[in-house]
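Colleagues,

For the teaching module next term, I've prepared a clean inverse folding example: a structure given as tokens, and then the sequence designed for it. I'd like students to try predicting residues themselves before seeing the answer, so please don't circulate the second half yet.
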């Protein structure tokens, strides 16, 4: 492991894995995070480290926790996946609620 990883804390392999798993190119992740491609390349190579704000943006874009980039376990929690599931559940509840409210009780 390069010494730079210890001094900066962020593990470049984790950044690369998160970017690759996001379904976006590194350039697209950089664009979405509002940073230059050169900055992203520096982060991915380990020669530079993202600021806390940029790391937060990377976490949201890639669906990882910020701790994941520092080597913490990410036990299958995917922020974007969970948000998408939450949106879908709300949509379904929105469809079901009017049906439930309009249903008349069955006479016994």
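(Answer key — instructors only)
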């Amino acid at each position: 492991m390069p010494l730079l990883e210890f001094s900066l804390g962020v593990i470049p392999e984790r950044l690369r894995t998160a970017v690759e798993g996001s379904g976006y190119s590194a350039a697209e992740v950089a664009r979405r995070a509002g940073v230059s491609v050169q900055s992203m390349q520096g982060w991915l190579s380990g020669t530079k480290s993202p600021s806390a704000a940029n790391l937060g943006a990377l976490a949201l874009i890639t669906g990882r926790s910020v701790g994941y980039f520092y080597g913490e376990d990410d036990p299958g929690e995917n922020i974007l996946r969970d948000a998408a599931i939450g949106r879908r559940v709300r949509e379904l509840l929105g469809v079901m609620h009017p049906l439930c409210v309009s249903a008349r009780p069955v006479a016994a």
